[in-house]
Task: structure prediction
Amino acid sequence: MPVRSQLSTAKAEETRERILTAALTLFREHGFEKTTMRDIAAAAGVATGAAYYYFRSKEELVMAFYLRTAEEMRVVLPQELVKTNDLKRRLARIIHLKFEQFAEHRAFLGALFRSAVDPASPLSPFGDETSAIREESEAWFGQALDGASTSAPKELVPYLPRLLWLYQMGLILFWIYDRSHGQKRTAALVDGTLDLIVKSIRIAGLPLMGPLRRRAVHLLKELDV
Amino acid sequence: MPVRSQLSTAKAEETRERILTAALTLFREHGFEKTTMRDIAAAAGVATGAAYYYFRSKEELVMAFYLRTAEEMRVVLPQELVKTNDLKRRLARIIHLKFEQFAEHRAFLGALFRSAVDPASPLSPFGDETSAIREESEAWFGQALDGASTSAPKELVPYLPRLLWLYQMGLILFWIYDRSHGQKRTAALVDGTLDLIVKSIRIAGLPLMGPLRRRAVHLLKELDV
DNA sequence: TCGTATATTTGAACATGTTCAAATTAAATA
DNA sequence: TATTTAATTTGAACATGTTCAAATATACGA
Result:
């Protein structure tokens, strides 16, 4: 049976779960590179091959973790977004929630980004296989914008969710590199850039900004991002 | 002898060269992943271990190529920058030259970016080991700004070279992903974003932009990028 | 319940990046 | 030149991600 199709039995589902849990624990304790697939299988009490029956690759174990955080978002985010209509706060909630989910696994999330940079990888955040999850993430940003008191120029609206998602990708990359205590530099970056972004969105509507805004919209349309 | 220290003999230098040439040829013809270190060594007429005497890893062969392009920049760029004092054109020259150098190796340059995303990798563009080359790249952008007719607000000047370098990194990433014919989408992105950047630099000096600009400068200072 | 198809599990085999001790060659020194 | 030291080269060995054919367990129809 192919990997990732519906698991037929509860027992199989449980085995998959055991492998994933073992993997994440080991990744967290010893890092991604130091953990071997043999270690993972042994910790889960199965043969090496079993891990590959449930996951296509070592990286896919990290991806499974990421998918899990996306699931959690579905329960947690809506109740967060209800709390405020301040655009900056709304965006900040999305971003900080993601970082909170990632926090204890920071050291090994770089692994995901690595395959991420490979256009050929099925795990690439820009690829076809990940489009569903990417669109879901973008939709959160769309929702943050929709319910906010600040509204963006309408020509920009269709592009902002994707741009914000891209922005978040950049933040995550920065965060992975960030060796400051508690990643406080990332916190400063988030706060500072969100400020600039929200201010820019407001300013973007001013008449003076017309030419610049039209250029930007034209470019976005041309690139069809 | 450790890898990368001064090669003592011309013969050794020649062996190193042979290995590098073989590697780049094979990478170009079959891609980075498909080419094995055994292939490379065989093509260069040496034993597998020899490749590791001269290069610490497979990725370092790609890095050697990158270093070579940086060297070429030193001869080519100055005579390009003399030709115009239009800021957009000056920046465009730097960026396009790099893409021209990369062009025929596009398929395998992703490999460099992959290790790039790993903060632990010595090849990471943000790491200590690559600081010299990074600073050199930034310096080109500094030079493009210096000799341009458009001048940036002086509080921004110290940060612009690094920001432009970062911007270029993003462009390269886009380019690696760009499957359009002749990567014309990247060309559009470069042209469009350069336009926005140069216009923004001009606008940044306007009184209206004061608050936004000060915020940005404050953030840059705080992050000490 | 029996037999068959399908799902799961196994562990050895494979591929490939990397290391390393030993062999060889070249350079430096006496 | 002979000897010693250092640089270069070798190829087997190793580590680890991944594949795969075979074995086992499970579900399902008769």
Remarks:
- The two ends of chain A are 36 Å apart (CA to CA).
- The mean pLDDT of chain A is 92.
- Residues 1, 7-9, 11-12, 15, 46-50, 53 of chain A lie near DNA strand C (CB under 10 Å from a C1').
- Chain A touches chain B through 33 residues (CB under 8 Å).
